[in-house]
């Protein structure tokens, strides 16, 4: 469903993506692994259309390289940020309602339960009062409510406890069950077990892409062979 061809991206004179090629199949959980600074977040931002880049991005057979973020979002692509949202004064229910495809309180309640949060959190503010883990789950709830075709999740596993880690893994599997393809960005190999396939990014290049177990072994052996 997504094909990235020879993607190149330069920011402030630095080449961050150096000709990235990879594909995500329909209804697949695809893990993008890479050490810090390998370009994972930049790749997701380029696919979302946040930064202009050279190369081609094909989504469901259409060339979307020159489309805006909003046009891509309308086509069913979404990106959940690494640092979850903070909006002082905005209630969780209102934050979620903006992105929800089905705008009903019962849908919000169902999803908030799915991500393991209590119903009353809907009436709290999306701000400092919530922990990082809670805001991560709210971010995940907002992605679920969008019902996207492709969800790119940037490090949903960072800064969370083991219990939340299991719950987030379950939610990602359910996303797949609901027909969403998932591009999962992480530098932890623990999340690889829920993936179907994986890609290793290193210094802005794809060094391997393929079956989960094969990539898991490769990453353990040599997480970034291009780095000296
Ligand atoms: N605005 C910018 N200008 C110049 N270089 C940048 C800019 N933003 C990011 N970079 C550089 O691009 C490289 C890739 O960053 P990116 O955040 O995409 O990596 P990452 O793999 O997601 O890292 P992490 O695992 O630490 O989140 C890094 O070396 C970073 O310093």
Automatic annotation (TrEMBL):
It comes from the Archaea. Keywords: Amino-acid transport, ATP-binding, Nucleotide-binding, Transport. One of its GO terms (molecular function) is branched-chain amino acid transmembrane transporter activity. The keyword Nucleotide-binding applies. The keyword Ribonucleoprotein does not apply. InterPro entries: AAA+_ATPase, ABC_transporter-like_ATP-bd, ABC_transporter-like_CS, BCAA_Transport_ATP-bd_LivF, P-loop_NTPase. One of its GO terms (biological process) is L-amino acid transport. Pfam families: ABC_tran. Belongs to the ABC transporter superfamily. PANTHER family: HIGH-AFFINITY BRANCHED-CHAIN AMINO ACID TRANSPORT ATP-BINDING PROTEIN LIVF (PTHR43820). This is ABC transporter related protein.
């Amino acid at each position: 469903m997504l094909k990235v061809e020879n993607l190149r991206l330069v920011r402030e004179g630095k080449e961050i993506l150096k000709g990235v090629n990879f594909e995500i199949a329909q209804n697949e959980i695809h893990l993008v692994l890479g050490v810090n600074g390998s370009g994972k977040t930049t790749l997701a931002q380029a696919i979302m259309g946040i930064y202009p880049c050279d190369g081609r991005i094909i989504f469901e057979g259409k060339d979307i390289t020159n489309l805006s973020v909003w046009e891509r979002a309308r086509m069913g692509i979404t990106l959940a940020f690494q640092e979850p949202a903070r909006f002082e004064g905005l209630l969780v229910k209102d934050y979620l309602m903006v992105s929800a495809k089905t705008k009903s309180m019962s849908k919000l309640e169902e999803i908030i339960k799915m991500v393991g949060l209590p119903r009353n959190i809907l009436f709290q503010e999306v701000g400092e009062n919530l922990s990082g883990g809670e805001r991560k789950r709210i971010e995940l709830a907002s992605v679920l409510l969008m019902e996207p075709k492709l969800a790119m999740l940037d490090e949903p596993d960072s800064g969370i406890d083991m219990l939340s880690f299991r719950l987030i893994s379950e939610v990602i599997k359910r996303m797949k069950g609901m027909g969403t393809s998932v591009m999962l960005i992480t530098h932890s190999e623990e999340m690889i077990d829920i993936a179907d396939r994986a890609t290793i990014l290193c210094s802005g290049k794809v060094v391997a892409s393929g079956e989960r177990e094969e990539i898991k072994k490769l990453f353990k052996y040599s997480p970034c062979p291009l780095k000296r």
